[in-house]
Amino acid sequence: MPNGFKATPFARGGRRLLPRTILGSTALVLTALMLAACAAKPTLPPVEAPSFIVHGNRVVVPAGSPLRTRLGIAAVTDANIAQQIAAPAVVEADPAAQSRILTPLAGRIVRLGVRLGDRVRGGQMLAELASPDLSSALADDARARSQLRLTSAARDRAVGVKAIGGAADKDVQQAQADAAAAQAEAARTRARLRQLGASGARRGNGLTLTAPSSGVVTELAAAPGAFWTDLTAPLMTVANIGTVWVTANVAEGDLAAIRAGQPVGISFAAYPGETIAGRVQSIAPLLDPDTRRAKVRIAIANPDGRFKPGMFASVRFTAPTTAAPSVPTTALLLKDDATTVYVEVAPWTFERRTVDTGAEQGTRTAIPHGLAAGQRVIATGGVLLDD
Fold it and tell me: Quick one: which H or E segment has residue 22?
């Protein structure tokens, strides 16, 4: 070619033709790009094994699962556990030591000798009433005693006259009958006065009510000047609280562990940190149909009146020690308001089982029903199988 001449692509049919060297280079570039794209395609990570597999009511922890290092398995063992039963209680006065003071007659309250909370002695004056009915009773007694004297004298005269032959037998018999009737009437009026109170009879028109025994006035419904007409309503209540009852309400399911004479510990809200020892005195023969609880009563001495009726308390019963299967308390899981555990039925295969729990002692809980000694349960980490 002459110098300065530039080679140009040869055109055939009006199209420009590229040299073969350019076409080859282009093919090499395209191939390189395709290989680079294939090399840049991400690879999928390997599929991990599941932590656990559920088959019906069983859970299997497969080999290689991280849960195998996080689950703690323990054996079910028999343990001697003393069952502790706690029940709410209240202090009450002994019903046999309470006297409800009633008035036998209607009348006006003239005077009150005590106030609410006062300590009284047996025979002490409590109240005095002015009662017309008492005046009538005293008058009846006076007439009966006068009639008895008169008929007794007439009987003695008739007997004397009969002895000297001056009286008929019928006169003597009539006098004796009159004297017997008068004696019966006098006995009736005396008994009536005794029912009203002998002290009231001696005070004339005033009816005096006295304390039947020593105690404390725990209720007072009367006031001076009031006219009392309801003979069934007590004016006041005098209770001897030298000994009081602590009445515990024990649930039906715990009654089998309670017996008369059983020692108990009593704590009072009024005296925190103090525990009083006592013994079960009686167990109510009937359950409360609403609360399904029975009243268990413990009598305790109360010489200084520290334990006041109405105080709240808590009673702890110690049941006899019994042997029962037990598990670590951490093995218990709550599901649908039921207590459950995972029991090993095969190596790394567990079955969820509902159990009944008993007393708790230390870190273990008794299982009276649902498990047997020698079985194995998940003690820690069982909650991970619920995920």
Answer: helix 20-39
C-alpha atoms less than 13 angstroms from C-alpha of 284 in its C-beta half-sphere = 16
Q: How many CB atoms lie within 10 A of CB 127?
A: 22
Residues 6+ apart with CB under 8 A from 3: none
244-300, pLDDT tens digit by residue?
Answer: 999 999 999 889 889 999 999 999 999 999 999 999 999 999 999 999 999 999 999
Q: What tokens does 354 get?
A: 């509902």
Determine the CATH number of domain 239-318: 2.40.30.170
Residue-wise pLDDT for 24-77, tens only, equals: 555 555 565 565 555 555 555 555 668 899 988 899 999 889 999 999 999 999
- d(CA 350, CA 341) in angstroms, rounded, equals 9
- Distance, in Å, from the CA atom of 231 to the CA atom of 56, rounded to the nearest integer, reads 74
Torsion angle of the four alpha carbons 336, 337, 339, 340, in this order, in degrees rounded to the nearest 10: 0
Judge whether 101 and 235 are in contact, CB under 8 Å. yes
Q: Tell me how far apart the alpha carbons of residues 79 and 367 are, in angstroms, rounded to a whole number.
A: 10
Q: Cα(189)–Cα(140) distance, rounded to whole angstroms?
A: 6
First to last CA, the chain: 86
pLDDT at 203: 47
Q: Residues 6 or more apart from 113 whose CB is under 8 A from it?
A: 124, 125, 126, 127, 128
For 215, the token pair is 């105690």
Nearest in space to 362 (alpha carbons), one of 330, 323, 318 = 330
pLDDT tens by residue, 212-243: 888 999 899 988 888 888 888 999 999 999 99
Q: Of the CATH numbers 1.10.600, 1.10.287, 2.40.50, 3.90.550, which one belongs to the domain with range 132-204?
A: 1.10.287
pTM: 0.57
Q: Helix H segments across 164-258?
A: 169-196, 198-202
Q: What is the CA radius of gyration of the chain?
A: 50
Instruction: Tell how strand 227-228 and strand 243-251 pair up.
Output: unpaired
CATH code of 58-82+322-386, in short, is 2.40.420.20
Angstrom CA distances, 293 to 33, 263, 274, 284, 311, stand at 87, 20, 26, 10, 19
The secondary element (H helix, E strand) that includes residue 15 is strand 15-16
